[in-house]
Amino acid sequence: MRLTDILSSATRTLTAHATRSWLTLLAVALGSAAVVVLSALGEGARQYVLDEFSGLGTQLLIVMPGRNETSGGAPPLLGETPRDLTLHDALALLRSPLIERVAPLSAGEAPVSYRSLEREVTILGTTADFLEVRHLSLAAGRFLSPADPEQAAPTAVIGQTLAEALFGNQSPIGQRLRIGDRRFRVIGLLQASGVSLGSNLADSAIIPVSAAQALFDNPSLFRILVQASGPAALDAAADDIRRIIRERHEGEDDVTVITQDALLGTFDRILSALTLAVVGIAAISLLVAGVLIMNVMLVSVAQRTAEVGLLKALGAREQDLVQLFLTEALLLAGAGALSGIALAYLGIYAVNLQLNLQLTGFQLQVPLWAPLAAGLVSVSSGLLFGLLPALRAARLDPVVALSGR
């Protein structure tokens, strides 16, 4: 049989049983769409997290109290800390020529009020270098003074959401508000930057680190953000940080230093593995669709026994019959895969359009391998599960087949 004859015969057979063919095609399409959509979701999440970490700034190191070896967990779930990190520890790091800026952080929750309005927000205590280390920008006013960090000046820089909640359309610059039991003067307004690593700077207030330590009655630091002098200096700067802290903590190596690249690499590996896991689960649905194709083809063989017998009597070889039935299976699998991939792209486009309208910053992104993998698994399952019915049809005895048994 010629290839054109095989394709023509397979197409006529599938259209003759339209309902059965459409249901099988739908199963393959849904499986293929699931693979593409879930991979796009995983890739979008991976890229979103990486962008968020990159938004923290460049050449960044994060110093955290305690060592992750203490309890075997990842920071900040650390073990017992022999010593707290202090403001003097942070300032001592500037002795290293490999360290350009240091931004100590003291953090907590406190009510912020203006006249009769009050809002519970995150309070960050830091220094003037925080603006450069985190690559933030101001919409109005100025940032914290670069004066002595140990001076608890009653000044604050607030985010856009907090400013709108307390002051409405009025400019917050120069206004006085109350944080906890203390009064502060607003000197700056942050440019909108959204949520970054769980910290919504738009709904927070930034005050001098000494003021935050006094407000929370806690002299220890939450963490220290360090900007190295260059990308090539990250590892050496991390060694200097450990050395300086060790000297100040009586020989105790009791801090965890995380480089930004290591953090990005860890999250990249975790999210990539999760993406592959959920895509693998979705691919199982394509195997189920392959079983459905096999069942449909077995039914087709049973219904076309006389036709198979006639073809063999007219000189069709076993190879021709195998090709005929495999072509039907491949047409179902291929058409289903293409339909599913097209459906997935339409759905992803609609979701991304909605996300753009909501300005979330998160987008579904289809990796190049996803449609290829969906198509390959679909066609492979069609071949695999179409082989048994094809072999059964090819091995039918022509005399028995013509008798309809």
What does this structure look like?
The chain has 405 residues and is α+β, with helices and mostly antiparallel strands. It folds into two domains: 189 residues, no CATH class; 128 residues, no CATH class. 54% of the residues lie in helices and 18% in strands. It has twelve helices and twelve strands. The strands form two sheets. It has a six-stranded mixed barrel. The chain has a two-stranded antiparallel ribbon with strand order 8-9. A hairpin with a 2-residue loop joins strand 6 and strand 7. Helix 1 packs across helix 10, helix 2 packs across helix 10 and helix 10 packs antiparallel against helix 11. The longest helix is centred in the last third of the chain and has 44 residues. The radius of gyration is 33 Å and the shape is elongated. It starts with a helix and ends with a helix. About 3% of the residues have low confidence.
**How are the strands of the biggest sheet laid out side by side?**
2-3-10-5-7-6
Number of strands: 12
* Low-pLDDT segments, ≥5 res: 69-81
Q: Tally the helices: what do you get?
A: 12
Task: State the end-to-end distance.
Answer: 25 Å
Mean pLDDT: 82
Largest sheet: 6 strands, mixed, barrel
Class by helix and strand content? alpha+beta
Rounded to an integer, what's the Rg over CA atoms?
A: 33 Å
Share of residues in helices: 40-55%
Q: What number of domains?
A: 2
Which sequence of SSEs, written as H and E, runs from N to C? HHEHEEHEEHEEEEEHEHEHHHHH
Shape: elongated
Strand content: 15-25%
